[in-house]
């Protein structure tokens, strides 16, 4: 095992969930000692790969932290420079997507934009105390190790496995809190339905599927359509089997998945996304829990990246999608306390 561990420094990984009868927040945390190609049997290990799952050692290993308390807050350094995404580039991308949808190549795809922020000093997780405190219907996640980090507050759970039940969700469609109902928006409902169909079809190999009612959920500055999905498991799927089955869902990739991902992997934005939209979770014994790494910040040294994606379908309007992307970026900056 020792030869499979890299990195001499010590780091931190954490993830909140609401796994108890009172529905209270619970944080699982790890004092990271190294990385590995596989989890350690019977111990808390965190899975923190890139979106494309190309890392050879995606597992963070170390010692669990009991009664975890967030690190003492440090001051966030001043922003030196911000490099925003280009609207003109996105509009060209959107036009290309609609042409391909019209030609039947795929029904939905999720392009993304990235903005780079250079700070005056090296970043650390303690500079973002808000990232340890999720709001209603949100889950705080993150890690820092060996000069790199990822943190955020996501609304999306990829899977939650315990007591013979797999719980997941379809989460798609975006609107401003206080804005028009997403339930009455044909474009948003269609986009969301594609995600439901993809997930329900994918997980039926594991057991009996039950799809719950769709509702509108509020997450700080944004709201989304949400549908719970449960599977009564017939067997015991592995963590890697669940990742292969569910990542990426149609909410982050597209539909049909293979065609959408073939197109996505040829785009410049796919190369720059790093861990945006990647699965992030932990495993200990039979307990497996994983969220989707959105609404977050990635960094290396003093350079950081914010990203946002949007689901494009036949009814999408380019300027509306651009406004949605900017709303998501602004919401993430506000949630993490980043002032430009």
Textual characterization of the structure:
- With 340 residues, the chain is of the alpha+beta class.
- 22% of the residues lie in helices and 36% in strands.
- The strands form two sheets. The chain has a 17-stranded antiparallel beta sheet that branches. It has a two-stranded antiparallel sheet with strand order 6-15.
- The longest helix has 19 residues, at 318-336.
- The protein starts with 10 loop residues before the first strand and ends with a helix.
- Residues 1-8 have low confidence and may be disordered.
Radius of gyration: 19 Å
Instruction: Kindly name the structural category.
Output: alpha+beta
The main pleated sheet reads as: 17 strands, antiparallel
Q: What is the approximate shape?
A: globular
User: Would you list the SSEs in sequence order as H and E?
Assistant: EEEEEHEEEEEEHEEEHEHHEEEEH
- By DSSP (H or I, 4+ residues per run), the number of helices equals 6
Mean pLDDT: 92
Strand content: 35-45%
Distance between the termini: 44 Å
Total strands: the figure is 19
Unreliable sequence segments: 1-8
Helix content range: 10-25%
Architecture blueprint of SSEs:
Layout: E1 11-17, E2 26-36, E3 45-47, E4 59-64, E5 79-83, H1 87-102, E6 108-109, E7 112-119, E8 139-145, E9 148-154, E10 157-162, E11 165-176, H2 186-203, E12 207-211, E13 215-219, E14 222-233, H3 239-246, E15 254-255, H4 257-264, H5 268-272, E16 279-284, E17 287-292, E18 296-300, E19 303-309, H6 318-336
